[in-house]
Amino acid sequence: MGMFKTREPRKFNRISIYTSERQDKLDKLVRDVKREMGELPKDDIDPDTFKGKFAQYTPRAHKASQSRFKLTLPLAAIVVILLLVAWRYIMTGKLF
């Protein structure tokens, strides 16, 4: 009968949403030293090898990274100005 049983409280599991770069560097240094001394097995996975891999395996991101033409802000501003000048010429017959 579940009516007379008391439930166990959930265990406390603290997950920090803030990181300390100093602590991360210190932990990495400690792991590297322990790995050199032979206390830890050699780490086969290096996080730096994963940089830029996402774009390779998603077609849209891969296509965007491979495209040569990129519409930049100065080019877009020039195009808008030229369109405004052309529109004014069409409406008034004067260039400036």
Architecture overview:
The protein has 96 residues and is mainly α. It has four helices and no strands.
Question: Which terms summarize this structure?
Answer:
mainly alpha, elongated
Summarize the structure.
The protein is mainly α. Helices cover 51% and strands 0% of the residues.
Task: Summarize the helices and strands and which ones pair or pack.
Elements: H1 21-37, H2 54-57, H3 59-66, H4 73-92
The first-to-last residue Cα distance is 90 Å
Average pLDDT score: 82
Strand content bin = under 5%
What order do the SSEs take from the amino end to the carboxyl end, as H and E? HHHH
What does the largest sheet look like? Answer: none
Note the total helix count. Answer: 4
Total DSSP E strands? 0
Shape: elongated
- Alpha carbon gyration radius: 30 Å
In helices, the fraction of residues equals 40-55%
Low-pLDDT runs: none
Main structural class: mainly alpha
